[in-house]
Amino acid sequence: MAPRDAEATRRRILDAALAEFATHGLAGARVDRIAVTAKANKQLIYAYYGNKDQLFDTVVEHAFQHAHDAVPFTPDDLVSYAATLFDYLVEHPDHLRIHEWRRLERPGATELERQLFNEKVDDLAEVQPNYGKKGRFSPADVMVIVVALASAWALAPAALRDLATHDPKQQRSLIAGSIHVLTHYRQDSDTAR
Amino acid sequence: MAPRDAEATRRRILDAALAEFATHGLAGARVDRIAVTAKANKQLIYAYYGNKDQLFDTVVEHAFQHAHDAVPFTPDDLVSYAATLFDYLVEHPDHLRIHEWRRLERPGATELERQLFNEKVDDLAEVQPNYGKKGRFSPADVMVIVVALASAWALAPAALRDLATHDPKQQRSLIAGSIHVLTHYRQDSDTAR
DNA sequence: TTCCTAACTAACTCGTTGGTTGCTTGCGAT
DNA sequence: ATCGCAAGCAACCAACGAGTTAGTTAGGAA
User: Fold this and answer.
1) Calpha distance B141→B124 (Å, rounded)
2) Would you call A103 an interface residue with chain B, using a CB distance cutoff of 8 Å?
3) Residue B171 parent element (H or E)
């Protein structure tokens, strides 16, 4: 398995690419560095993944699938879903960064991504059909809030994050609490100024 | 004012740099492109701003100051603060992008940034001294939530954003409503699973 | 008018980087 | 054993891009 194992080499390259792209982004990443980290010849990167852009796309797709598999969606319990998503982001900061780079450097959504979100939103709509009313949260808007809160501390400006809680346990507790409140105490009047 | 106006040239370069960095980031930006856009000679960029990195830092600092001036902080009315912040982000997508790039490519906070956030958090602590209790939101944590919600739609994954409301008015209403609920209905028990 | 300085410019340098080429090496089938 | 082919490699290259240099032009002061 050690020598001449194409599959293992592919994986080593992909892992190295994930690390490189996560820290430097698409434009900042260096193919040579990926080759060194992966202990693979540079040419193999091109042989297996085409070019830098395609390699990046492959990394993104993998990260997405990985996250989807690791964080099961529970439309009837958004509190624990947010908590699980939060835990995932804490444990895989590289994946979060990859998605940020991707949003900035490669706008647009892949088919897989679209499909996974559609699925989630549909599941949510089934459980909470009343969301759809005017002025209320649509299922997709609910997801937006959930995702935003789960990544709130991770995405906060450094200067602010330094002032806030550093304890992940407490962060998760605050996120879960917020979502609990939001899903149970809905305001009736329009957002008074 | 047209010819040989150093101040105007400096500003043109800065504007061009903002646009270039906002779309391509630090690593992806091209100094030559900035020079062309600014209708200035490349050397002037180096004469006025040192090098690419310093130019980027200057742009970031300017954007930060601009946002701070445009969005007055109202610690006693977080709902309207969030709404105003949201409006600013909608009207200045470049500034939001610049700050994202900055978080990814130039970690760490500048002195100005630290100072502005300290100020806000202190103001908030004064108005809401009870926030500090254990398990509750500290002022900084409140700010984290407010910022996260104000930028929730802007930062959502493309595939999800496509499914959610596109109407900024409604987005703002949902943001304001969420913050209203969060600041008025605090949960008592610890985030039940 | 003449000088001096600041604003501005064109053309170059040179290290870097994505991508390629031609070759060698090991492994499994015949 | 040997043939065929996929896996792997070192060296190369053209293009690019940050930063520099040596010079020209405008405009105000003496």
Assistant:
1) 11
2) yes
3) helix B168-184
**Interchain proximity A164–B100, CB inside 8 Å:** no
Distance, C-alpha B12 to centroid of its chain? 22
Are A179 and A149 a contacting pair, CB within 8 Å? yes
Task: Report the alpha-carbon distance of residue B154 to residue B93 in Å, rounded.
Answer: 9
CA B89 and chain centroid, separation: 7
**Residues of chain A found within 8 Å of residue B156, distances taken between Cβ atoms:** 143-144, 147-148
Do residues B172 and B87 touch, judged by C-beta distance below 8 A? Answer: yes
pTM > 0.85: yes
Closest CA to A160 of B81, B147, B94: B147
As a dihedral over the C-alpha atoms of residue B60, residue B65, residue B71, residue B76, rounded to 10 degrees, the angle is 110
**Residue A96: other Cβ atoms inside 10 A:** 18
Reading the block at residue A71, the tokens are: 């964080």
Cα–Cα distance measured from residue B36 to residue B45, given in angstroms and rounded to the nearest whole number: 11
Mention every residue, 6+ apart, whose C-beta is less than 8 A from residue A179.
A78, A79, A82, A145, A146, A149
Cα–Cα distance measured from residue A160 to residue B115, given in angstroms and rounded to the nearest whole number: 10
Chains A–B, number of C-beta pairs less than 8 Å apart: 200
How far, CA to CA in Å, does B119 sit from each of A126, A160, B110, B142? 45, 11, 14, 14
What's the pLDDT at A137? 85
Rg of chain B (C-alpha set): 20
Cα R_g (chain A), whole angstroms: 20
B138 Cβ contact partners less than 8 Å away, ≥ 6 residues apart: A164, A165, B131, B132
pLDDT digits (tens, 9 = 90+) for B121-148: 999 999 876 655 556 789 999 999 999 9
Residues A100 and B104: beta-carbon distance below 8 Å: yes
pLDDT in tens, A1-56: 456 788 899 999 999 999 999 999 999 999 999 999 999 999 999 999 999 999 99
Contact predicate A14/A62, CB 8 Å:
yes
Whether B113 has its CB under 8 Å from any CB of chain A: the answer is yes
Contact A26, A56 (CB under 8 A): yes
* Residues B34, B45 contacting (CB under 8 angstroms): yes
